[in-house]
Structure formats: structure tokens, C-alpha cells
Amino acid sequence: MPELPEVEALALDLGGRLDGRAIVKVHVPQFSALKTFDPPISALEGTLVDRVGRVGKFLDIEASGTHLVLHLARAGWIRWRDEVPAIPPKPSPKSTLALRVVLDDDGTSTSPGLDVTEAGTRKSLAAYVVRDPMDVPGIASLGPDPLTDDFTEEVLGEILQREGRKQLKGVLRHQGTIAGIGNAYSDEILHAAKMSPFKPAGTLEAEELTTLYAALRSTLGAAVDRSRGLAASELKGEKKSNLAVHGRTGQPCPVCGDTVREVSFADSSLQYCPTCQTGGKPLADRRMSRLLK
């Protein structure tokens, strides 16, 4: 799932490609992906792209005062195409194409564009056409952005105290609490901070708060720096190659060499290093316990 660093890099890459370009046509072959009806999707046609930005994990393409806001969900992605087919895409349950933006030809013989795709059968990708990004319910309910200047250690401390006995992992990835952090980077932040994902949020001492805040800012900041300047096609590989524990179950921890372990849930999992994060004690994995009985 694209998280804050990847969406930030996507916004930078697409901002350079789209700035000042005219949107000629928007096709929505996966109509369930479009979550709004006013303004209609046709309101984007004939507009000029002013900017591309990020709000949490949402991508915001602003064109002549109208916003195309995209949430890529778990399996969505955006692909730049130097030339899109002249024939409009047709709806197909087997196709991964959810939305296509066709741009002006810029004096050439080909029309470039963007393909917004979603792999898999679980269709969660969402597109909104709005006059103000705050009209998107998911944006209106977002917590603070963790990379802004006003997201201080004190702000994080207040959040953790407010969340009380809730586990750190869940607090970090809940978008209404802190915007932009998902499953992967919450694992990475907690590994960098050497904290258990199950540690209650409100129990951190002052020194632990300082450690967690530094890990959060440095982990996300470094990921943004590595991703800056990369094309959209390179971002997934860059993210995967720099993860310390997430998605690395059974592999050695790059810090201590212990085996990275996993806790599975109904629709997700977390990864951690016992030596670095839990005093050498493996966390209970109820799903695996049931399978081994």
C-alpha cells in the first residue's frame, strides 16, 4: 500500500509532468472507483493542471479550481504513459484499469496520460472529483501530518496520552490520529525506536517519547528523501529494498541478526524483531497458534 513517502514522491513526479498541461478526457472504466457525482467527472475536461499535492495518503491533482483526489488503497498505483490508446477503455471485470486521464498532445502526434490501476479482486481504490479536498470524508477526518513543522514532540505526546491503553502499532497507523503512516512504516518506526508494537500508547516515559518521535521523523524523512526525484515506476522497488523488518518475516534483522517474526491478523500482519523490540520474547500470534494445534 502506498504510504506517505510514496505518495509524496508521486506528487513530486507527477507535478513535474502535469504542470500546465490540459486534461482532455477522463475515462472511468471501473465506475465503482468514482465516489462523487457533483461536480461530474467531465468537469475536469478542458482544465489546466495547477499543482499536484499530497494530503495524508491521498493524492490531489488540482486543475483550474477542480480537484481530482485519489486514494490508491492497498493495491492501487499510477502509471505514466507517453502515449495512451486512441480507443477509450471498456469496462471489464478482468482489467486492472480503474481510471485514465488523457492529456493534451503538447504539439506532438501522441497524447500522453495517466493510468490509475488496481490489482487483485478487492477493489478499494477511490477517486473523488471535488471543489475542495476537505469535501472528501477521508481527508476531513485526517489527523495531523507527521512531517509538518507543527507536528512536535509535544503534539505526539498529547496524542499518545489521549489514546491511553491502545497499542502503539494501531495508534501510529490510524489515519484519524496521525495521517499518512500505514502498516509498513509503522513497523519500521517501531523497529527504529526499539519498541513493541503492542506497547500501550499512554505508558511512554519522557525519554521513550523522545525516542519514538525521533524514529518517526527520521524514518519517514529518510524515505521521502530516498524517493524524491524517482519516477513512479521506481518507487515500489525503492521502498521494498529499504525496509528493515516489514515484509521480511524469517530473514535476519539488519541491526542485531535475530530472525524477524510476524503476528498475523484477519486481513494484515505486522513484523518485528524480538531482540530489538520485545526483550527477546516472541509476541503471541493467535492465528499461527490455531494452525499448529
Automatic annotation (TrEMBL):
A Pfam family in this protein?
A: H2TH
Q: Which reaction does it catalyse?
A: Hydrolysis of DNA containing ring-opened 7-methylguanine residues, releasing 2,6-diamino-4-hydroxy-5-(N-methyl)formamidopyrimidine
GO MF term (any one): class I DNA-(apurinic or apyrimidinic site) endonuclease activity
Cofactors that this protein relies on? Zn(2+)
Q: What is its EC number?
A: 3.2.2.23, 4.2.99.18
Domain of life according to the entry: Bacteria
Boundaries of every FPG-type domain copy: 244-278
Family indicated by similarity: Belongs to the FPG family.
Q: What is this protein called?
A: Formamidopyrimidine-DNA glycosylase
Q: Which organism is it from?
A: Nocardioides marinus
